[in-house]
Design a protein that fits this description.
single chain, 330 residues, six-stranded mixed sheet, disordered N terminus
């Protein structure tokens, strides 16, 4: 019993810890032994406390956002009309709250109509760059511009009108396929939704659903596979038709068949767009106009695929490692 009190004690803080421990004290010791189903109380408690810890992290961020001035007025608000859709990241350093520095004096240019790929070891700051470009977080050091305009002076809602975002963790709602895709543009007709669904290669699995486009897909698309959920996300981005596309690990967790279909859908999505793409699978970005290798929050190398291979640096090493691993068999 004392052990389980310690488990809860080290994982929780404040009133919640005290309340849970009080309830645990009321349980008989036999309750903490393995039961017939094989599920141990240790697993129950550890799972609960981990969920609590993760939930509190999200809740604390939520409260930070709620405390912000949601009605902030921008002096001389900027309308992003007829501006060049290029992004400039100039000497940006960034860290999440009191955590370690993620980006260190990063300078990066994403030219209009070009595809720029960010690659490198995990934890190098790739995902952070994409989130800062869309102003999910504000920076305190350096400057980020969109079309030559400092994004800190642009209303976030106005800025996000120019972005279509496809991340690995797709957010879907307990509604129909049709309405989940229509979130890309609320005024879209059924015909327009079906058109982009076909472009994103969704029609082949939607037609097999019980009620087709009117099928309710469950909370966060629980009735769909990972590849199907990802393709709905891409269809949504196609419907929005924003000039800038952010792709973050869009195929990282997919099997070979689904990855192929999603890659075809992505090829349609990014045509004639300004694209910032992040990937661990190097072969998926070999055709990018410009590749930037990030490590420890800094640019280590940049160039196109052939140039980076010839440089025989970090990119070349990562490429060779992945090429060898793809040929490995049992």
């Amino acid at each position: 019993m004392q052990y389980w009190g310690h488990v809860v004690g080290v994982r929780m803080q404040g009133d919640m810890r005290s309340e849970v421990f009080t309830h645990l004290q009321k349980l008989p010791n036999s309750y903490f032994d393995n039961n017939k189903s094989g599920v141990t109380m240790s697993k129950i408690i550890i799972n609960f406390t981990e969920q609590y810890q993760n939930g509190m992290t999200g809740f604390e961020r939520f409260m930070e956002i709620m405390r912000e001035d949601t009605e902030k007025e921008y002096k001389n608000p900027i309308e992003l009309k007829n501006v060049k859709d290029n992004i400039e990241i100039d000497n940006v350093s960034f860290k999440y709250e009191d955590k370690k520095q993620i980006l260190k004096n990063l300078t990066l240019s994403i030219e209009s109509g070009k595809t720029v790929a960010l690659v490198g070891p995990s934890g190098g700051g790739k995902s952070t760059v994409s989130k800062l470009a869309a102003r999910f977080w504000d920076i305190k050091s350096g400057k980020i511009t969109f079309g030559g305009k400092d994004i800190s002076t642009i209303d976030p809602e106005e800025l996000l009108k120019n972005y279509s975002i496809v991340f690995q963790d797709v957010v879907l709602f307990n509604s129909t396929v049709m309405e989940n895709i229509r979130l890309g543009r609320r005024t879209a007709s059924d015909e327009e939704v079906k058109k982009v669904a076909k472009m994103a290669m969704c029609d082949e699995f939607i037609e097999k659903l019980l009620n087709g486009y009117n099928t309710v897909i469950g909370e966060n698309g629980s009735t769909l596979s990972g590849g199907e959920r990802q393709r709905i996300s891409i269809a949504r981005a196609l419907l929005k038709d924003a000039p800038i596309i952010l792709l973050d690990e869009a195929t990282a967790s997919l099997d070979v068949e689904n990855e192929s279909k999603v890659q075809q859908a992505i090829s349609t999505l990014i045509k004639d767009k300004t694209v910032l793409v992040i990937a661990h699978r190097m072969r998926t970005v070999a055709g990018a106009d410009h590749i930037v290798v990030l490590a420890d929050g800094k640019v280590k190398e940049e160039g196109n695929h052939d140039e980076l291979l010839k440089a025989d640096g970090l990119y070349s090493r990562l490429w060779n490692l992945q090429t060898k691993s793809s040929q490995w068999t049992i």
